[in-house]
Amino acid sequence: MSTIQLETTLARDAGQGLGARAMRRSQEALRRAFTELCEWQRRRRDRAVLATFDDRMLRDIGLTRTDVLAEIDKPFWRK
Fold it and tell me: Do the Cβ atoms of 68 and 51 come closer than 8 Å?
């Protein structure tokens, strides 16, 4: 194999390695984003359900109406 072919082959192989790493990083970033979106959706849903609880149900779980109002006023991205 000539020097030019060898250098071209090495450069191509190195590029594929970087592509695979970039692909894994992209997949991991998408996985984290999807997980975060699912968490936001769960918070929104849980807060909507909590807003429907009457005072007796809130007493059963140890919350007050003030606790609930503070929780449901939070934006979905805030814990």
Answer: yes
